[in-house]
Amino acid sequence: MSRRTDSLAFARKLFNERGSHAVTTNHIAQEADISVGNLYYHFRSKEEMILALFDQLDEAWRTRLNVPDPSRVTWADLRSLMAEHFAIVWEFRFFYREQITLRQNDRRLTRRWKLANQRGRDDMLSLLKSYFHCLGYAPPAPTGLDRLADACWLVADFWLVHQEMRTGPVRRKDLDLGVELFASIMRPLIASLEARCPPLERPDAH
Q1: N or C terminus: which one in the chain shows less Cβ crowding within 10 Å?
Q2: Quick check: 56 pLDDT over 50?
Q3: Rounded mean pLDDT of the chain?
Q4: Domain made up of 47-196: CATH architecture
């Protein structure tokens, strides 16, 4: 890896362990075993490093949160996607813990986060629509589907913070509970659809 990539990796490690507010560029340079001047050659400030790390986070969202066939989404796809999402949350957990403060301190980060967050929420809505279609049941009314997407996205975005407020610092396995909460949101709705709504005729039924 390049010095720049190495420095970002060490910064992310320290930010995750201590919080970005408690880490200075001196700490990062010491951890990376380079001079502060060398670090400043690649990044003008700690804020520039945080922006670069957000770009890595956004790239992870774009490349790792996909399903094999978006037009035929299964329950296994949704669970797998949520599990991968929480793997990303763990890798970049300082962002999720500090997102409000970080965004208040940097308008550039605010703009990038807002765009990425909206894209993620829209993707969640599209996946849910596809899932209900493949399940063979009419999806909830548009307003209900929007609220379902919001509920699922809230779990995805704030589960780590919620757990730490309740129990203190979380471990990697604690994030698996977020996947189960997502499932618990979905199960009653599926059961309700099965009880009240006749299955749709699937396009490939004939």
Answers
A1: C
A2: yes
A3: 89
A4: Orthogonal Bundle (1.10)
Q: And the tokens for 202?
A: 């699937």
- 8-state DSSP, 198: P
φ and ψ at 171, to 5 degrees?
-100, 165
The pLDDT value recorded for residue 196 is 63
- Using one digit for the tens of pLDDT, what is the confidence trace for 153-188? 999 999 999 999 999 989 999 999 999 999 999 888
Interior angle at CA 90, CA 89 and CA 94, nearest 5: 80
Residue-wise pLDDT tens digits, 114-156? 999 999 999 999 999 888 888 777 666 777 888 999 999 999 9
Q: Where do the CATH 1.10.357.10 domains begin and end in the chain?
A: 47-196
Count other C-beta atoms under 10 Å from residue 10's C-beta: 21
Dump the DSSP string for 52-68: HHHHHHHHHHHHHS--S
Q: Which long-range contacts (CB under 8 A, 24 or more apart) does 182-188 make?
A: 182/78, 182/79, 182/82, 182/152, 182/155, 182/156, 183/79, 185/148, 185/151, 185/152, 185/155, 186/78, 186/152
Residues of the chain with CATH 1.10.10.60: 1-44
Distance between start and end Cα atoms, the chain: 54
CATH 1.10.8.1310 fits 1-44, yes or no: no
**What pTM did the predictor assign?**
0.89
